[in-house]
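User: Please predict the structure of the protein below. I'd like the answer in structure-token form so I can feed it into my own downstream comparison script.

Assistant: Understood. Taking the following sequence of 469 residues as input:
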Amino acid sequence: MSKLAKFPEGFLWGGAVAANQLEGNFQADGKGLSTADVSPNGIMSPPDYSMKDFNLYHEGIDFYNTYKEDIALFAEMGFKAFRFSIAWTRIFPNGDELHPNEKGITFYENVIDELLKHDIEPVITISHYEMPLHLVREYGGWKNRKLVEFYERYAKTLFERYHEKVKYWMTFNEINVLLHAPFTGGGLLFEDGKKNEQDIYQAAHHQFLGSALAVKVGHEINPDLQIGCMIASMITYPYTSKPEDMFAATQQDRKTLFFSDVQSRGYYPSYMKNYWIENDIEIEIEDGDLEILREHTVDYIGFSYYMSFVASTDPEHLKQQASGNLLAGIKNPYLKASEWGWQIDPVGLRTVCNQLYDRYEKPLFIVENGLGAVDVIEEDGTIQDDYRIDYLRAHIAEMKKAIGDGVDLIGYTSWGPIDLVSASTAELKKRYGFIYVDRDSEGKGSNKRLKKKSFDWYKNVIGSNGEKL
């Protein structure tokens, strides 16, 4: 390993969560209905407006009431940072109000203050897999330009209230999910059930504008704020050295990189302009839009990393499918997989770090990475999650190598430091945490928190600044 492979002083170790996956209390204190509240089967499933089916998102793990105890456990692990999201519907219940819900503002201020009390840096995602349901029903979601105005008002409200306490922000969680789960990513519904790329890319343009305007207003309120984008990164390998496979991998990666290209470079890349022409997609771009994108790029690149993908032009290879985060891909014969079929590739994290830093030369922040697994409480009350320790150890080791390669890395917040509701399947048996929550996918259990073996392991990792893995 390079002698330069060392985590920098002040590296932001911690964990990451999303409001709709752990807060519960989905109608408390004036909160409005969100897209997550009508998604009882996860982000890839169609919405159920009747809300007759049990929806674990409605209950979460009751973080809305237990945040002080949970943050105390994060502090015990030594967290330097905690990434969480704000539920848009707690601040603007319908999304198009002129004035915010003060009870929602106060709740998140209390969470922020509790973190600061424990010397934990708050890292806030402004919109994470949820948006006001009213904006879907009344306006058609992000394909409607009016949402740019509503989002800008929402972001400005947060910056005005919290800018003296919160330095790190992200505008949209995994913004490229819009391509794969349009309802979750953009509140888009299609009459025939088939994805309409015209609407999807129009919605993307509006989200890019919303993101850029958030950067603009955030920096106007406080120039010291660090406002980043956030993508679901999925590095793609060619299945073989066949040139056609290599180009297929390039095309697959562009589907992700397009979203960070626009927010980080400030313009639409030629490959996407050509794609739109070839597919008869005409994006409505108003005067001044391109200037806004160019002048208000993000300060850093936030991203999730769970697995890599493989591309091939061989029909036989295409039959060998592997499950994955948001979409399936071709099985990589060199990799093992999790219980949910997600292929485990620590070296891919180093590759992604180098790919993104070479491309943008902006600081990177790994804000999601972790292993979902079925955890079992032993007879002695312990939870021996060595598989999770092995997964995280291998990925952190590759992060360290990436730093040795010259990558500027701000921090690492593992996904789900406390068990929460899975976004992809809306269940609790798929657990990520260092902290076990006694609750099942039917919402039954004591809700008691238990430390897993990985709790003390991660505590030592943080305490040694990544030297003791």
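That's the full token string. The chain has one domain: 12-234+300-308+343-463.
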